[in-house]
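Progress against Task 2.4 (sequence-to-structure conversion) is shown through the following example record, which the project officer requested during the mid-term review.
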Amino acid sequence: ERDAPWDKHKKHSETIANYYSSDREFISKGEKVTYCSDLLDFRLTPDPEESAYKLKLDSARFCRQRHCPICQWRRSLRWKAKAYQAIPKVTIDYPKHRWLFVTLTLKNCQIHELRDTLKWVNDSFKRLTKLKEFPAIGWIKSVEVTRGKDGSAHPHIHALLLVPPSYFHKDYLSQQRWCELWQKCLRIDYKPILDIQAIKRTPNFIIPEILKYQCKESDLVADKEWFLELTRQLKGTRAIAVGGVLRPYMKSLEEDPDDLIGKGEDEVDQVDEGHLFFGWKPREKKYRLIN
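Structure tokens generated for the chain above:
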């Protein structure tokens, strides 16, 4: 069951491949996505907790296209793994500091205006971090884009902020004040929607929200023309940025992971008890064991 997502992501990647292949501008992308992860090589490795064996991906041919559902899923897993490794180091170095989870939004834009809107949003966030009232000494920021029911685009920011203990005493900012500051940095004449939560424990549970896909799969496959324009608009843009004191710990989050498999993470995985190969069956929309 834990490997069931492979079927879902590969099924959606077929839709994306068809979208790309239908447009001369993206034919080469379509060919790459079509053959992405057709064959999966899993190792059987001992699982001491269950006194049994588990499957560990050993090799697969990934297309590494930004909007391939399989590759963006694997990329997200690698980003999260790196963040989970870095968070304890931050906690050791800043034991009394706390975390805030902030979502910053603005009105939807037309999909063909997305690139300019993203630049505007990112510039606004930079202005926010330079304000004297901005309390964080470090942050992880991700930009997500969702599809509106009318075909518009809704870009918004998720940010994990590291703040000193004084924030919850003399330097505290109410949600209303946060909203005022964000409005000021956006330079808009309406009140934007903003959500802010204080995290009382380790931020590990919020990491998946920060480092998930830039655009969820259901939006990617909902409309061909919207998706193709999304590809044009997001070309060369960055989904994740790290700033302040967190940069030395998590700078690698700003880069495309070299390894989408995750080899060598567990000592027990060094034991190889054999391989199982799974091939994609287009008619069944499932991976099947190859005998």
